């Protein structure tokens, strides 16, 4: 086994089961989605709310960022529900 390989996740010599692999992929996708979401929110809300960067946020900047993040989370929830309900069953 090379130093970059992981040992098999299951006890068999054949390697991990499809279920284990799918769970790992789902976990990695969820992590990537969360990182992308927070990066986007951070960048957009900072650009919108912080006009003159300094060592600390003013009260209005802090309130703006809070409202901005809340709106992004709410919008993401609405979009997610719409997509899920439109999927064929």
TrEMBL record:
Which purpose does this protein serve, as stated in its record? Mitochondrial intermembrane chaperone that participates in the import and insertion of some multi-pass transmembrane proteins into the mitochondrial inner membrane. Also required for the transfer of beta-barrel precursors from the TOM complex to the sorting and assembly machinery (SAM complex) of the outer membrane. Acts as a chaperone-like protein that protects the hydrophobic precursors from aggregation and guide them through the mitochondrial intermembrane space.
Annotated Tim10-like domain ranges read 24-83
Q: What is this protein called?
A: Mitochondrial import inner membrane translocase subunit
Query: What Gene3D superfamilies is this protein classified in?
Result: Mitochondrial import inner membrane translocase subunit tim13 like domains
UniProt cross-references to SUPFAM superfamilies, sorted A to Z: Tim10-like
Reply yes or no: does the keyword Transport apply: yes
Organism phylogeny = Eukaryota, Viridiplantae, Streptophyta, Embryophyta, Bryophyta
Q: Where in the cell is it found?
A: Mitochondrion inner membrane
Assembly description: Heterohexamer.
Chief place where the protein resides: mitochondrion
Check the record and name the Pfam families matching this protein: zf-Tim10_DDP
Q: How does it sit in the membrane?
A: Peripheral membrane protein
Query: What does the entry's free-text domain comment contain?
Result: The twin CX3C motif contains 4 conserved Cys residues that form 2 disulfide bonds in the mitochondrial intermembrane space.
| Keyword tags | Chaperone, Disulfide bond, Membrane, Mitochondrion, Mitochondrion inner membrane, Protein transport, Translocation, Transport
What's the family? Belongs to the small Tim family.
């Amino acid at each position: 086994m090379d130093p970059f390989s992981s040992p098999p996740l299951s006890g068999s010599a054949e390697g991990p089961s499809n279920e284990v692999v799918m769970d790992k992929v789902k976990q990695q996708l969820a992590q990537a989605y969360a990182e992308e979401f927070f990066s986007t929110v951070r960048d957009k809300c900072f650009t919108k709310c912080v006009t003159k960067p300094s060592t600390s946020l003013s009260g209005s900047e802090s309130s703006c960022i809070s409202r901005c993040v809340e709106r992004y989370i709410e919008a993401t929830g609405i979009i997610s529900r719409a997509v899920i309900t439109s999927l064929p069953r």
